[in-house]
Amino acid sequence: MSASTIVVMGVSGVGKTTIARLLAERLDVPFAEGDDFHSAANVAKMSAGTPLEDADRWPWLAAIGGWLRERQTAGTGGVVTCSALRRAYRDVLRAAAPGVFFVHLDGSEELVAERMGERSGHFMPQKLLRSQFATLEPLESDEDGTVVDVGGTPEELADVAAARIRAR
Fold first, then answer.
1. Is residue 105 a contact partner of residue 9, using CB atoms and an 8 Å limit?
2. Contact 129, 11 (CB under 8 A)
3. Looking at the predicted structure, is the pLDDT value of residue 163 above 80?
4. pLDDT tens-digit profile of 12-56?
5. How many other β-carbons are positioned within 10 Å of the β-carbon of residue 57?
6. Residues in CB range of 103: below 8 A, 6 or more apart
7. 7: which strand partners?
């Protein structure tokens, strides 16, 4: 199996970073945190409780797409986190790195809100969660990816995602 490029996606608070790190370990590929690709202006905007607009997102998505393309070109594969809430955003990533596979971490708004309330040190405030769920466009049948329910432990979720990636 050639090394895959994977985007672990979903609303804020579903565990993208935790699961993506574990998944990268299981697949023995590099990991990148999508939040690190945001501009300082984007982080400040979200920290202030203001949702990003598409104009804010395009450069961020292009940077993540560039990272994925570099991993494909190098043949190393890689796992990166990115909310990728709308199909148009995923299309940007697919255009940069054809063949990218999406792992959509999915859970109820109540569960995700509870988890967000338990975490500390993240710039995304819980009050933006509703806007993320409103924006979310689930993976469509023609998109290369899988949906993983976040009801299990991080280790279980990473195992499920890894098994589905290996089986494709």
1. yes
2. yes
3. yes
4. 888 899 999 999 999 999 999 999 999 999 988 877 878 788 999
5. 19
6. 6, 7, 8, 9, 19, 23, 145, 146, 148, 161, 164, 165
7. 80, 102
| Confidence band, pLDDT 50/70/90 cuts, at residue 123 | very low
- Give the residue numbers spanning the domain of 42: 5-167
| Polymer length in residues for the chain | 168
Please give the helix or strand (H or E) that residue 161 lies within, else none: helix 154-167
Q: How many domains does the chain have?
A: 1
Q: Which two three-digit tokens encode residue 126? A: 């819980």
- Centre a 10 Å sphere on the Cβ of residue 26 and count the other Cβ atoms it contains: 17
Q: Calculate helix-pair angle for 16-27, 154-167, nearest 10 degrees.
A: 50
Q: Measure the CA–CA gap between 126 and 124, rounded to whole angstroms.
A: 7
Please tell me the least confidently modeled range out of 5-9, 65-69, 149-153, 156-160: 149-153
CATH number of the domain within which 54 lies: 3.40.50.300
Strand (E) positions, the chain?
5-9, 31-32, 78-81, 101-106, 145-149
